[in-house]
């Protein structure tokens, strides 16, 4: 870089730019610093300052002052500075270049520089001594001369030095006092302040020094010895204040308050008050002297009096009212700047706060009686109104407190003053009611609500009483009522109210207030809202209510249902997209409810609402969504449903191996975790029998809520879930009724006619149920899912460090292995606890290439194995045993723990195992006392009995059947459905034989019997070569059951239509296949397949209707794919 | 010495460019701050969350960017002021207090020594004063613990300040007189920045007004025509009342006013050098300081014997002696003409004084002559001696400063009754046409010498365009502008004195069809969802009772929010604003009897008294429409 001539003088323009850039900072400043190193810059500055005609002397001095910390670090420059000061101060005036202004700025800047770089301690004291001496010389000539203002400034310089180095001037205090006495020009304020500062420091440092003594000459000035020596020197003189002299000095100082400017007075009082305390002067003396300042319109003086009041609390006893009155009057002075009016209210609030905190309850009484003074006026700016309303809130809090205190029954005021203050105060912003919701009036009004509401409480935990007080406060009651009325009348306020409630809900301490408000709204607003289009504006608040599980949902559901009916009724050609929008909004609330409430609470009303919507709502999309929600509500257990709806929130919460915490002792823990992350990509646990339904909608979800906590959660609610089952089942019938009438009709209690047929059925069922174990008290029925575990060698080695291929080893020996594998299972579905599996040893699967090469080598070792079989070597079979509490599909999460050969611990999550509805299919348990050859008959009878029991108008609906063990009982609540499968008979028969053979209990119909019997897949059942008559019987009986039965339209056509139209579409009837499937823990699924040439009608009955959703998919997958 | 006031730094920013045009740092004060900061950090337990107080001053560029960041975050220069939905944690409006529009905090992104990356450090309290094109920021010295306390207030996670709370903004402000001082500094600087230093107006019968301090100085000393700058300009009273922009319909107070002078850096520097050389204010009286700078002193300016010359009176008067008082009153009225809302009428007055008296005499006059029941507030110039017991039944004694000064402020009710009585009715006969009727009575019960110099009535329609107008008043002339109709009842030169008159004015006014106005950015910043109406407006039209409500509803949909400095949303109402001037006497009853004015040491000096009354917000609310009101307390 080319070296610039460093001595090139800077022009005034350069200096201006330099000063600007220094202040701007950053790169602009660095540009100069690199160009002109500090010493050079200072040299240039000094020479410019010495030049007579340099125009920017004052700005340059200010610049040196402002950046003194970075510029002055060499005593040489300080020498030059002091020299410059002397030159400028002593130069004669020419009023052009050497002016008083320059002299004053020079003194100020030099002083400032010395103080800010702490030259006294960091450099030589002589700089300070020289400057002080020069300044003392300036102030020493008290006369009415033209330099009077400059003398004042010199006093200020000395005062700053004295402030920074306390007691620097204490030795010359006597001289200063006499100067102070003799100065009579306007500069006397500075002399007085200087002398006061010296006294203050003497008192503050507790120096025993005579301030009358003028034996030490003023000039030449020497820094007092005690400031130079070690700290011990200072202590020596601390023997006690010279009270008498100091009091005289104080008396002198107090003579002259009238010469001070307000700013000077502020400074003066700041020193006088501590001196008065230290000298034990009577505070009342100060009060007499200075209290009148509170009537000044200078804010500084008012505040000074307040400081005095805070300092000498006792001396002002009884004058609080004067102060309060005065402050509130200041806030009403329209001549004042707004900020000072605001400040005066703040001071008042601060003062009142102190009074209350000090428990001055007596004084409060008289203060709150002044409440009316705090009323805002029409033309008060909104900010002032807001603060005055704070004052009113404060008063109302005091009223409430006073009410508490006067338990004796003394009534303060008439009516309820707290509420009166609230209502009167609110008047000033009452326009918020009809203004747009974003208006400032609205913001102020809701701020007031908040203040009045939580006014009496605090956010500190140490304050236990406030909740009760708030709850009982009349303000709270008033506010609740008011908010409800407001929202009823002015819908535009709904979002604002919601924001208000959100604010409370978001506060740990006050969220119960928000909840309480929501409850009030739920109780009082919802019944009063008119059901019309304007209801849409209430959506936000309804959403909040839906979110809150402390509020029973029935009121809301009721309202939403009414609204949906209204929408459907009012639907016309012009509502179009609006219907969609409104319907979607309502469904949005339904969704919120689903994700925040227990399904059981919602079930009745919500299913009602959703069913109505998906049947009648004009908009297709809304109908669709309603259907999805309905399905979810019906089919998914509550906890899981909520977790699905809150999917996004939970996603981040899933850790790769939540259980690894428990064996985190190994030092390689973190390492392992990292490696375990992608473990599922090469260790596979697979079902041996793939599921028919691959991508069922409920099964496509990623694992949720894995880990031990989830299991614990399930355990704890097992009983609830069980009882929920019962309830949901009970509701089923009502749901079906609903779809026709759209009103809930309580199902009539069926007449219990016990004819012989019924009693026979009951007997069969009793027998059957007594075989079913009650999972709550004994081992439940198990569902077994065969699986196999395998892992791929190459990626495994890649991660776990095995060399591949290992030198010296070939073939199987070269493959990695895992030892002592433990598979742990968990599921969010209610599958009970799933026992873990142990696999002692497992070889890795050779990768494709090595596999083949290995194959050629090891041919001679395993010659008998065929191609498909050799895979089995690398697969460990295992069985997952579930004890379902509900026969629902779900996911089983798999956690693997194993040891690698080198001792590393492998941990991680494997791909989850999908459990389908068909895994739940079990053969019904036969009583042990049935002979083998009677078994077929038993099943057939059982089928008939269950078929009957699951009919809607069944006579057994009210019966209960004891389970095995006798503690639990079960009731049957049947549901019916139909499915038309348009498949040719032969493929249907084939699929049935393949998948459903074990569950077939009887086949009816000559043709069908002959076909099936020949195939031989189905055995040991009842074959009925029935006549057409009996066939007719069967259908008739079905039709009878169906009469008056109301079905969800979307599950299929009406039975009657079916019967009528059936022959024409389906052609030749071949017969019936009856299938009985047992669903653990205690449910049943019955098919009556009416087989004909080109299609088959499956009538389905079950006592666990949620399974219908899966069965639909299952049957389609089974027969149609 | 915390009770005093010291300034660490001050900045003047250009509002439109967001740049610092002037800055001043006070290293002596900064050293005190630094010491306090270091000892605070030594003593307090290390708390990484809280410890984000800025330890040193920001550079101009850092400050400017932090300030514009705050402006962005807070929606406007001043900010929201109270917690709204847009408020974010850590910002001023989170504190939920209107004073945060005046005392602000900003976050400086600064790399502190030894720290790897910059983080946001709180700089508080900055007193914000907006004057003309400029924002003035003044940073007073407080203790780091106070800054931390404020940091806690604006980062609190709960729902906001309760009343009973130990740590509150109110207690902070009460404990920190330096903030009050900084406000005064900010206002003083603001006057210099824009160049409009105002002296109170004093009227004498001969000439409309007499000049300020410089005039009396130059007059007495015999110098004329010095000083190109700093000559105080007389301006209408009240000087300090923040003039309400609202009456004319302007909304944004943040909008810079045109016509401000460019920044005079020298004047600023010179003022700071005398007023607060080390950052501690000594005297903020600009006239005094500029006089000292401009005129200086001569050895012949002798101070009085045995008595100290006050700092606020650097010069003594020489010449013909006289004592002038002018009573200025501003009338605020909200006239409703309704049974349920009482009219409200208030007078805010002040006595301006000019004491051309030699030496340092005391002047006193009794306050007992006043009808004290009507006077609510009295506050005085610092030169006045107010006895500890308060001012009732006492004489007011003061030692007058030189030049024009405000001796006292007062608030009063109107003892004479409203100067203009009557009603204004506006009824929309269709969406675009309104029929109106005025019935006014002027100066009822007012006797000579009270003279009404002029009286205008304005009907502002800031949101509608006036197309045509029809009607003749019983007296006076009518003119229209684009957004208003103006009725001049009494024009200047034809003063009304000694009698009352009645004036009626029926008429109709037609507007251009209502159009949805462009949303100002301030609305969108308030972020309300406007689409909420799309679903429920279908049947709203049927429910409306009359065209007026319908129109009201329609127009209110895009009503912008007003600033917190406004008393209410002027645009939302129909009203007529009366402006007038009355001379001859006060209408509150405030008066000074020249015979009772005493001067000590006694001197023969004539005492002159004048009075004038002007209208402030003198509003006739449309009797048929909505109107703002406030509850009045029954004492």
UniProtKB/TrEMBL annotation, chain A:
GO terms for biological process: endosomal transport. Pfam families: AP5B1_C, AP5B1_middle. Residues 243-641 form the AP5B1 middle domain. Keywords: Membrane, Transmembrane, Transmembrane helix. One of its GO terms (cellular component) is AP-type membrane coat adaptor complex. Residues 1073-1117 form the AP5B1 C-terminal domain. It comes from the Eukaryota. The chain crosses the membrane at residues 259-279, 291-312. This is AP-5 complex subunit beta-1. It comes from Rubroshorea leprosula.
Automatic annotation (TrEMBL), chain B:
Residues 320-583 form the MHD domain. Keywords: Membrane, Protein transport, Transport. InterPro entries: AP2_Mu_C_sf, AP5M1, Clathrin_mu_CS, MHD. It comes from Rubroshorea leprosula. It is a peripheral membrane protein. Residues 242-256 have a biased composition (Low complexity). GO terms for cellular component: clathrin adaptor complex; cytosol; late endosome; lysosome. This is MHD domain-containing protein. SUPFAM superfamilies: Second domain of Mu2 adaptin subunit (ap50) of ap2 adaptor. It is found in: Endomembrane system. Residues 229-259 are annotated as: Disordered. It holds the Pfam family Adap_comp_sub. The keyword Protein transport applies. Belongs to the adaptor complexes medium subunit family. Its main location: membrane. GO terms for biological process: endosomal transport; intracellular protein transport.
